[in-house]
Specification:
This protein is an alpha/beta fold. Helices cover 29% and strands 20% of the residues.
Length: 224
């Protein structure tokens, strides 16, 4: 993880699990003793957002930057000016959760001067169970649309194919096949292979990409 660039932008289709990945990534960095900030640029999804877990994250020493409007019940998209803090302050390891479609990625355009080539990573979270990204052609088309809108290039693919708590090894491997095809056609490497912890332990060790065990922070215990 520390081989990744300091600024990490997480993009992907709505429902791909990019917010869950973003939170897990930030938590793992904090557990490694890093000074971490997670910024929520998701003005598309008003239900599952990283800023909804502020209390949990702040207890782990993670700085959370989200809406400038206080109160999780307020569904007015707004981005705090504090987002510039981890972009300008190089002491932070930054994870930036971007809106879940090309329209959401448009917010990145406002920060284009911080997206210098070689100074950031932009990870595309791919879930083969989402209709809009379940074929190689659809996934690449979606990826390119986000790149064009964000005016930045994707540097890594994240296989996050899942069925929430019902995820199996077979689900992850199905997504891996798709991720490898997308990687081959775009020349973008697979960076991580995500799975809930019990499944991650059963995955083959020779997969392309680093196996990334996940805790479902965004799913309450009572949720399926």
């Amino acid at each position: 993880m520390l081989n990744d660039k300091r600024l990490r932008f997480i993009i992907g289709h709505y429902g791909s699990g990019k917010t869950e990945f973003s939170i897990n990534y930030a938590v793992k960095l904090a557990e490694m003793g890093e000074k971490v900030a997670i910024a929520d640029l998701d003005v598309v999804n008003l239900y599952f957002r990283s800023r909804e877990k502020t209390d949990v994250l702040e207890k782990l020493g993670i700085k959370v930057i989200g809406s400038s409007i206080e109160g999780s019940a307020v569904d007015i998209p707004a981005i705090s000016a504090e987002i510039l803090t981890p972009m300008q302050d190089t002491s932070y390891e930054a994870v930036i959760d971007v809106g879940g479609d090309p329209a959401g990625a448009r917010t990145l355009g406002m920060y284009n001067k911080y997206l210098a080539q070689g100074k950031y990573d932009m990870f595309f979270v791919l879930n083969a169970n989402r209709p809009e990204t379940q074929t190689t052609e659809k996934a690449i088309e979606y990826l390119r649309k986000i790149e064009d809108t964000a005016r930045a290039k994707v540097t890594g693919i994240i296989n996050n194919t899942h069925m929430l708590k019902s995820t199996t090894v077979e689900d992850v491997l199905k997504g891996q096949k798709l991720a490898e095809k997308v990687s081959e056609k775009t020349n973008i490497p697979i960076r991580y292979v995500c799975a809930i912890e019990k499944v991650a332990k059963e995955l083959p060790v020779d997969l392309k990409g680093e196996i990334f065990p996940m805790t479902l922070y965004m799913r309450e215990e009572w949720m399926v």
